[in-house]
């Protein structure tokens, strides 16, 4: 997390793989997250505070899913089955 927005304490600016966006932190206990913390995000909401190792594992898992999807699409494109 980069920062908690001063005018909206229920929102925080985060960096997700280089993309900066605002997310809602209202589901977390007040004061439980600070700039520099890692959070698990789903559809724009921070669901929980996690540590860096958990964040790294989640990002690797998502990258692997994306690669598997890309590989499947490539295989379908090369298929000659009608």
Give an overview of the whole structure:
It is built from one helix and five strands, in the order E-E-E-E-E-H. The chain is α+β, with helices and mostly antiparallel strands and 82 residues long. The protein folds into two domains: 1-50, SH3 type barrels; 52-82. It has a three-stranded antiparallel sheet with strand order 1-2-3, with no helix packed on it. Strands 4-5 form a two-stranded antiparallel sheet. Strand 4 (38-42) and strand 5 (45-50) form a beta hairpin. The longest helix is centred in the C-terminal third of the chain and has 27 residues, at 52-78. It is elongated, with a radius of gyration of 17 Å. The model has no long low-confidence stretch (mean pLDDT 91).
Summarize the structure.
The chain is of the alpha+beta class and 82 residues long. It folds into 2 domains: 1-50, SH3 type barrels (Roll), CATH 2.30.30; 52-82. The protein contains 1 helix and 5 strands; from the N terminus they run βββββα.
Number of strands: 5
* Cα end-to-end separation: 48 Å
The low-confidence runs, each spanning 5 or more residues with pLDDT under 50, are none
Would you give the CATH topology of the largest domain?
Answer: SH3 type barrels
In what range is the share of β-strand residues? 25-35%
Q: What is the strand arrangement across the widest sheet? A: 1-2-3
Question: So, CATH architecture of the largest domain?
Answer: Roll
Q: Tell me about the largest β-sheet.
A: 3 strands, antiparallel
Fraction in helix = 25-40%
Please state the structural category: alpha+beta
Listing every helix as H and every strand as E from the N terminus to the C terminus, the arrangement reads: EEEEEH
Described by the principal axes of the CA atoms, the overall outline is elongated
CATH classification, class level of the largest domain: Mainly Beta
The averaged pLDDT comes out at: 91
Q: Radius of gyration over alpha carbons?
A: 17 Å
The count of helical stretches stands at 1
Counted up, domains total 2
């Amino acid at each position: 997390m980069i920062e908690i927005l001063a005018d909206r304490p229920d929102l925080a600016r985060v960096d997700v793989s280089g993309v900066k966006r605002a997310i809602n932190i209202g589901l977390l206990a007040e004061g439980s997250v600070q700039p520099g913390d890692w959070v698990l995000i789903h559809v724009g909401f921070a669901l929980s505070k996690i540590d860096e190792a958990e964040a790294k594992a989640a990002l690797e898992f998502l990258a692997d899913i994306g690669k598997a999807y890309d590989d499947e699409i490539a295989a379908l494109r090369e298929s000659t089955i009608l």
